[in-house]
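for the recovery benchmark. tokens below, seq after
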């Protein structure tokens, strides 16, 4: 399923929230994330090679205290996040 985002033009924001909800414009993006690269940053899709980094990040309670994912204890949890994506609440 492709990723779908909602784009709100500046004209909508001037008319208020009610107007935005009446006629939003949906944009559809490809199934895969393109790699975006600058001199100092590379944004790319996560791969299975990132499991250890995901586990390290999500095993820190300071990182997960404001998320609904909970603190990770096993590499399988990192793999599950990678396969299914983050939960939307």
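predicted aa per position
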């Amino acid at each position: 399923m492709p990723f779908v985002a909602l784009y709100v033009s500046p004209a909508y924001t001037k008319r208020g929230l009610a107007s935005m909800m009446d006629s939003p414009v949906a944009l559809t993006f490809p199934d895969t994330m393109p790699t975006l690269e600058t001199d100092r940053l590379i944004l790319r899709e996560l791969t299975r090679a990132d499991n250890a980094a995901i586990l390290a990040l999500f095993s820190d309670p300071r990182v997960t205290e404001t998320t609904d994912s909970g603190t990770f204890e096993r590499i399988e949890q990192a793999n599950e996040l990678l396969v299914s994506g983050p939960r939307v609440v």
